[in-house]
Amino acid sequence: MSEKSYTVGRLADDTGIKPVTIRYYEKIGLLPKATRSESGYRLYFEADHSRLLFIRRSRGLGFSLDDIRELLSLADRQQESCAGVDTKVEQQLEQVRSRLKDLRAMEYELERLSACCEGGVIMDCRIIETLSGEA
Amino acid sequence: MSEKSYTVGRLADDTGIKPVTIRYYEKIGLLPKATRSESGYRLYFEADHSRLLFIRRSRGLGFSLDDIRELLSLADRQQESCAGVDTKVEQQLEQVRSRLKDLRAMEYELERLSACCEGGVIMDCRIIETLSGEA
DNA sequence: ACTAATGGTTATAGTAACTATAAGGTCAAT
DNA sequence: ATTGACCTTATAGTTACTATAACCATTAGT
User: Fold this and answer.
1) DSSP per-residue string spanning B55-77
2) Is the CB of A41 under 7 A from strand D?
């Protein structure tokens, strides 16, 4: 009983990752080279499906493709300590928090700018003034 | 009395934007072509200094270089309404908020993941498990 | 059986905003 | 005169895709 196979389009529909992107992941070695049908179509199986979902979830947490490559290779070593995984998560958390800090500062500044506009002409525009000058 | 001029390196030190980046901005037309010394060095004046600071401040608020190009061209039309500027700020604010929302969700998920690691081996790792499976 | 629509294949170039590298010319100081 | 710091250009690399072109395979409809 041979396992049911997907085409790249099916896999794409099932995972929410587009065919081009799936091929791209294969090209950069994030996914193993797919087996092919007689006519040359890529064929995917359950394991590919799982791997791709793992990638998508990790992307959703902001991990880079390089990070994910490492995570996947860690995940494959069943018997080893998961400390490396934990470390990666911590690092990612720090990065996200640092980015959050930056964005919150931007939000605050943009709110201030937005509030100070009184709808005149450029010459009197406080926004332009602020961007242009003063410390 | 001719105005005092800077080299690209001096301008870089004064604005916190690297020489390569300044040249890059010139190349893409964000800065006007610099005048040159006899030997071919770029020479900058007060106006360039201001313009570059405007760019840096706008970058600091997360505006894209294309946005900044528009902002600069708006800023040059002293007599026109500043509505366009205000709109750009609003749009940028929305973008920042949307990005904040995404990042906060990531932060939350990463915190959960991080908390659930108990330091065993990969096989039992709840992090890997979470990334791998379940809805 | 023929045809059109859909979906698969490859390779190449473009995106944003730089960064890195190479190979060379200039300038101020020793 | 030579060192070192700084300037010049052009080209390629980065991240994670997206867009385009040109072509082959499969499937649904007539």
Assistant:
1) HHHHHHTT--HHHHHHHHHHHH-
2) yes
